[in-house]
Amino acid sequence: MLSLSPTTTPKPSGLFYFTVPSTIPLHPKTLKTPTKRTHRPFSGTPRTLLQYNRKPQLSGETPRVVVITSGKGGVGKTTTTANVGLSLARLGFSVVAIDADVGLRNLDLLLGLENRVNYTVIEVLNGDCRLDQALVRDKRWSNFELLCISKPRSKLPIGFGGKALVWLVDALKARQEGSPDFILIDCPAGIDAGFITAITPANEAVLVTTPDITSLRDADRVTGLLECDGIRDIKMIVNRVRTDMIKGEDMMSVLDVQEMLGLALLGVIPEDSEVIRSTNRGYPLVLNKPPTLAGLAFEQAAWRLVEQDSMKAVMVEEEPKKRGFFSFFGRSLGK
Ligand code: ADP
Ligand code: MG
């Protein structure tokens, strides 16, 4: 049985090995010592050395303006923005997360900041408040700020488009306290005006997809639109992966997804009920102690984003059960 096992996270209680295709260290605060590997080592060429006590090296020009998009709704864009954003803040980078999902905003809920959003970008543009007043600073990580475009249930005002968002990004760059390292834009679903607005200021994209054909078709369409818009740096996160279903051939493997979309892989996030729990609590998963499997996967994706690194989808064999004499014999003869 072939499957993908792509993270450095502790081995789950499933039937599969989790190999280490990339050498992303785990966050020193969440895991101080490397987990003992009981699987076959990854044979690829690692780009970075395994170092547990280092900070990731910020690659590329700052601010890195990254749009988190998917095409299809409900695949995990907002979850990714919240968790990758807070992971980046924990790694010491200054982050502004913009909720560009006008009318259906929910990034504030996921972050537990809904009661602190008094002003939005619309009020800033109308001259009713300053940009600083619209930025909501997270109390847990003060280098993380949230910016909402508009009030919930409101419509995108006529005239608000990509240019307004470009102005906003420029205003963030010109702030007195300095430009942020990362500007993450949580994109709305679909490919209409809201999508075009959200991608306009971005120079890189994180495409979130789940391993199902509807999500993949939308992701493929979005990839084409991003490329048309001049965004060439597109990496994907495959979310809600279930190894048990891959094993039963009820779900596409991440390798299949990668082959279909042909994009660099930033991370693979397992299906995890903790994600839903943390969404409802307004407490992003990456802050959980002890860390969960999905939380660690988001952290590693953030690390790769910083270093503009990617991981490899690999096929691994099913973990051999305790072999008896005959099974060993049978295996040898079978070769
Ligand atoms: P989008 O922003 O793309 O519409 P969301 O981030 O709001 O999607 O996620 C949609 C739902 O899926 C949320 O209820 C969220 O808790 C759930 N979800 C996202 N990722 C996972 C995961 N890895 N495991 C379990 N549930 C998830
Ligand atoms: Mg969303």
TrEMBL record:
PANTHER family on file: SEPTUM SITE-DETERMINING PROTEIN MIND HOMOLOG, CHLOROPLASTIC, SEPTUM SITE-DETERMINING PROTEIN MIND HOMOLOG, CHLOROPLASTIC-RELATED
NCBIfam families attached here? Answer: minD_bact (TIGR01968)
Report the record's Gene Ontology biological process terms.
Answer: negative regulation of cell division
Residues annotated as domain CobQ/CobB/MinD/ParA nucleotide binding: 66-284
Keyword check for Nucleotide-binding, yes or no. Answer: yes
**Would you tell me the protein name for this molecule?**
CobQ/CobB/MinD/ParA nucleotide binding domain-containing protein
> Source species, please?
Carya illinoinensis
Q: Which residues form a coiled coil?
A: none
Q: Where is this region: Disordered?
A: 28-48
